């Protein structure tokens, strides 16, 4: 098992989203690993929770990474956030992610959860699964 590829993988995901024209049209550059201080945009994306499971075999070290990309919207309604979520899905599923270390064997959409929060904001959590090899 190795978690050694996690940082390289997160960087590749971030660069993929930041460089995708449809994602940029939806959220601009409001894609964060850690939220900045000050006022946040009306719609933004955070790279979130991750879980890794050992998938090493006789050919080498590997892991299955389940990770979440979350959208948060201040505006009423889900339409704009869902458009951004679709762009994120399209970007990640079509990408040939290049890692500084290791490689992505496959990347799949797992699930999504759209919620209206108690403060009136909207939240969409997109969960993906990626198989990485060292």
UniProtKB/TrEMBL annotation:
Gene3D superfamilies reported in the protein's UniProt record: 3.30.2000.30
Q: Which domain of life is it from?
A: Bacteria
InterPro entries reported for this sequence: Gp17-like, Viral_Tail_Comp_sf
Q: What is the designated name of this protein?
A: DUF3168 domain-containing protein
Query: What is the native source organism of this protein?
Result: Tritonibacter multivorans
